[in-house]
């Protein structure tokens, strides 16, 4: 089984690396590939970290699983016609098509989410409506062969759910144990429904400032 994790300049690191740590578990025997328009180093959203793409889109025409990670600059994917065309073509033959965070906007712009329930980062949920998707606040959403995960860290949950679907609950639980994924956050502020209103307002303001910066 081959997994293609899309990379591009501006990608959010944990969106890609969280699922990677789950899917590359040795017991699963999955061929996990990092793919991009061109091979080479791709800088993450704030430019301080680089992830290496070892394969081009052309070299990965029929992955069994597609994973589109998100970004603080959604136009990095939504504004790239070549990438959108590849997503649309690959989706025709995938067994599973998945996204993390604003990666869902890439799927949506490629026409994958038309008429489907989907999730993304809470600050971007309304954008899904522009592409005919039905936004939902669930952490992981499955619609047929399409999985979408909410913001950043939820990619780990999505990948474990995917492993359970493909290999069974025992395999998913073993993988979860191996990576010791046992969340016990110091604050109960991981969603806008739980965080204090002042924190939600501050997060919105940070996002507003970020969105005014030049994209990648």
Write the layout of secondary structure elements.
Blueprint: E1 2-6, H1 13-23, E2 31-36, E3 40-43, E4 50-53, E5 55-56, E6 65-68, H2 75-78, H3 81-91, E7 96-100, H4 103-109, E8 117-118, E9 134-135, E10 140-143, E11 146-149, H5 154-167, H6 169-178, H7 197-211
Helix pairs in contact: 1-5, 5-6
What can you see in these coordinates?
The protein has 216 residues and is of the alpha/beta class. It has a single domain, classed as Class I glutamine amidotransferase (GATase) domain (Rossmann fold). 33% of the residues lie in helices and 19% in strands. The protein has helices at 13-23, 75-78, 81-91, 103-109, 154-167, 169-178, 197-211; strands spanning 2-6, 31-36, 40-43, 50-53, 55-56, 65-68, 96-100, 117-118, 134-135, 140-143, 146-149. A seven-stranded mixed beta sheet has the order 5-2-1-6-7-11-10, sandwiched between helices. A two-stranded antiparallel sheet has the order 3-4. Strands 8-9 form a two-stranded parallel ribbon. A hairpin with a 6-residue loop joins strand 3 and strand 4. It is globular.
């Amino acid at each position: 089984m081959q997994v293609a994790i899309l990379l591009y300049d501006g990608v959010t690191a944990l969106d890609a690396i969280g699922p990677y740590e789950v899917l590359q578990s040795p017991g699963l025997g999955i061929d996990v590939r990092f793919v991009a328009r061109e091979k080479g180093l791709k800088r993450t959203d704030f430019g301080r970290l680089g992830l290496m793409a070892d394969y081009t889109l052309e070299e990965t025409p029929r992955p069994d699983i597609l994973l589109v990670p998100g970004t603080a600059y959604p136009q990095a994917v939504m504004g790239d016609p070549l990438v959108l065309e590849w997503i649309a073509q690959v989706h025709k033959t995938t067994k599973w098509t998945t996204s993390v965070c604003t990666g869902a906007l890439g799927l949506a712009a490629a026409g994958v989410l038309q008429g489907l329930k989907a999730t993304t980062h809470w600050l971007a949920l309304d954008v899904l409506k522009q592409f005919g998707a039905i936004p939902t606040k669930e952490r992981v959403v499955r619609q047929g062969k399409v999985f979408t995960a909410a913001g950043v860290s939820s990619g780990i949950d999505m990948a474990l759910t995917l492993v359970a679907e493909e290999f069974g609950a025992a395999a998913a639980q073993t993988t979860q144990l191996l990576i010791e994924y046992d969340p016990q956050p110091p604050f109960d502020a991981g969603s806008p429904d739980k965080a204090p209103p002042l924190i939600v307002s501050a997060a919105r303001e940070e996002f507003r400032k970020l969105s005014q910066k030049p994209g990648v």
